[in-house]
Amino acid sequence: GAIPFSGEDYKLLGVDLSDLYELERTLEEAGLNNEIPTLFIAEVVLTYMENTRSDALIQWAAEHFPQACFLVYEQVHPEDPFGHVMQQHFSHLNTALHSLARYPDCEAQQRRFLGKGWTECSVMDMNEFFTCCIPEDEQQRVQTLEPFDEYEEWHLKCSHYFVLAASKGMEPSWTPLLPSVTAPRRAGPVGMAGSVPAAVCARLSGIPGLRRYGHHCVLIKPNVILTTGGFGEEDGQHCRMRNFHVLSKHAGYWEAVCVTQNIPDKRWGERLYHTVSCISDTLALVVGGRTSPSSSGLGMLWLKFPETCNASGPDDIAAELVSLQPAAEAAALRWRHSTTEMTFKGEQYLFVYGGRSALEPVLGDWYFLHTPELSYTVIAVEGPVPESRHSHSACSWEGGVLIAGGLGAAEQPLGSVFLLREFERGFQWQTIETHPPLVPRYSHTAHVHEGKLLLVGGVWFHASSVPGITIIDLMTGLCLDYAINVEYLEWPLMLHNHSSVFLPNEKELLVIGGGGNCFSFGTHLNPEPVSLSLSSILISH
C-alpha cells in the first residue's frame, strides 16, 4: 500500500480493501490514530466487492475503532423493472453489483450493520432523503437550476439508491439522518388483492415505431387506435417521433401500420406529453405538449382522417393548425395536462386541466372549450379546488370528469381523487374518499368501466413494489391494488410514460409504449405493446 499523495492534513492511499491486513498496515504507516472519532464514507464502493469481503470490512471497522461512524450510499431493489435495467447497465460495464442479492432492501442493509458491531443505524432511500433531509429552500434551488422534465426517472433512480448512517461509541449518539420535516412515513408494503397476467401481442412485435414514451394513444372507433408523438425509435435512432401509427384489430389480432404525416411545420408534429381527443369518426384534436422543456408553444392541431381509417388502409391523416380565440390560447401552452370530453346542459365540451408550462412547474387551472368550434366558455365551478398537479389521469364519467393522482407542488406524488360534476348552474368539485387511501402516484393512465375507476401503472414512492392495476369502486370508495404478472414477458415492463386503451367487451387493456430516458442508465423503451386481461378482476354485477 503506497501513499501516492500526502499533504499537511490529507493523505490519499491506494490499497485493496479486501486485504484487511494490508489495509491496517497502510493506515498505521500513514499515522492514523484509531482512538479518536473516525468517519468512514463508502459512496458506491462496498457493492463492487464480494459480500464476504465487504461484510468483513464493515466488521473490521467496528472492531478497530472504538468511536466511529460509517456512511454508505449505494443501490437497492434489484428485482423490479427499473432494478433489472439498472443491473443490466452495470453488467454491461463488467462491474456487477454484488450487495443486491444478499441485501436487496434498506431493512436488510440496516440488519447487516447492526449485526456486525454497529450499535446505531438509520437508513432511508433517496426520495425520502431528498424530501425529509434537504432544506426546502435548497430543494427549490435545485428544482429551478435548469428546465427539467425527467421526474419519473429521477424518482425511480432515487428509490433505487439509499443512504445509511451507522455509529458506535459516540457520546452523545450520532444520528445524522434526522428528518428536518416529517414527511408521511411510507407505510409498509402495498397489499395486493391479486394479480393480472401480461402477454405480448402476437403480431405487434418488431414494429420499432411502437417503442416510444410521452406519446398519446386514442381509440378513434371500435378496434382502431391512433398513436401520435412521443420520443422513441425511428429509422434505427432515438428521436422525437414524427410519424403516426394506426393499430387495428382483425380476426382477434392487432396489426399496426405507420402513417407519414404531412404537417406544414415539422415542429408541430414532434411533441411529447400532449393529449389527443376524438371529436367524431373523422376528427381528433391534439392539445399542447412540448418539444424541449423550455419550448411549449405548440398550440392545437386538428387531425382529419377518413371514416375507413384502419391498419389495412390508413390513407392519409391530414393535420391543420387550430386558430384559437386569444382567451383560449393559454389552454394549449402546457404539457403533462389532461383533456377530457364532458357535457354541460346537453352540449359537448372539452375540459383542459392542470399540467405544467415553461414558466410554471405545476398548474391548477382549467378551461371549458365548446366543441367542435373550441370557443372558450366561462362556467361557474364550486367546491374544494384540487391542488395543482401534472401527470395525473382524467376520465369522462356520467358527463363529468374524474381526476386522480398526479405530481403536485414540490414534486410530491398525490393520492387525491376528484369528481367534477354538473351542479345547478355550473359544476362542482367533489372529493372521492378512497378506503384504504389511494397510494399517491403519477404518470399512470386511467379508464372507467361500470362504475369503477381503473388506474394503470405510474410511479409511486413505495419502493417495495411497483404500481400495477388499482381499481376504485366509485360508489363505495373501496380501493384494491393488483400486481401485474410479468412471467411471460422477456423484458422489464416499465409502466410510466405509457399510453393505454381499454376494450370493454373483451375486458382487455392494451398498453402501448412506456419507459424513459434515465441519465444514469440510458434509454429504456418497452419493446412491444402488452395486453392485460382484466376479466378475472372486473366481475360484472
Structural notes for this entry:
Belongs to the methyltransferase superfamily. LCMT family. Keywords: Methyltransferase, S-adenosyl-L-methionine, Transferase, tRNA processing. Helix 2 links the parallel strand 3 and strand 4. The strands form 9 sheets. An 8-stranded mixed beta sheet has the order 28-29-30-31-7-36-33-32, with no helix packed on it. Strands 23-27-26-25-24 form a 5-stranded mixed beta sheet, with no helix packed on it. With 541 residues, it is an alpha+beta fold. Helix content is 15%, strand content 34%. It has 2 domains: 136 residues, Vaccinia Virus protein VP39 (Rossmann fold, 3-Layer(aba) Sandwich); 342 residues, 6 Propeller (Neuraminidase), CATH 2.120.10.80. The chain contains 10 helices and 36 strands. 40% of the residues are buried.
Topology record:
Elements: E1 5-6, E2 11-12, H1 20-29, E3 38-43, H2 51-64, E4 68-75, H3 81-92, H4 99-102, H5 106-114, E5 120-125, H6 126-133, H7 136-143, H8 151-159, E6 161-168, E7 195-200, E8 212-213, E9 216-221, E10 224-228, E11 231-234, E12 237-240, E13 244-250, E14 253-259, H9 266-269, E15 275-280, E16 283-287, E17 300-304, E18 318-321, H10 329-332, E19 338-344, E20 347-353, E21 366-370, E22 375-377, E23 381-382, E24 393-397, E25 400-404, E26 417-423, E27 426-431, E28 445-449, E29 452-456, E30 469-473, E31 479-485, E32 499-503, E33 508-512, E34 515-518, E35 522-525, E36 530-533
Parallel strand pairs: 3-4, 7-31, 23-27
Antiparallel strand pairs: 1-2, 4-6, 5-6, 7-36, 8-11, 9-10, 10-13, 11-12, 13-14, 15-16, 16-17, 17-18, 19-20, 20-21, 21-22, 24-25, 25-26, 26-27, 28-29, 29-30, 30-31, 32-33, 33-36, 34-35
Organism: Drymodes brunneopygia
InterPro entries: Kelch-typ_b-propeller (IPR015915), Ppm1/Ppm2/Tcmp (IPR007213), SAM-dependent_MTases_sf (IPR029063)
EC number: 2.1.1.290, 2.3.1.231
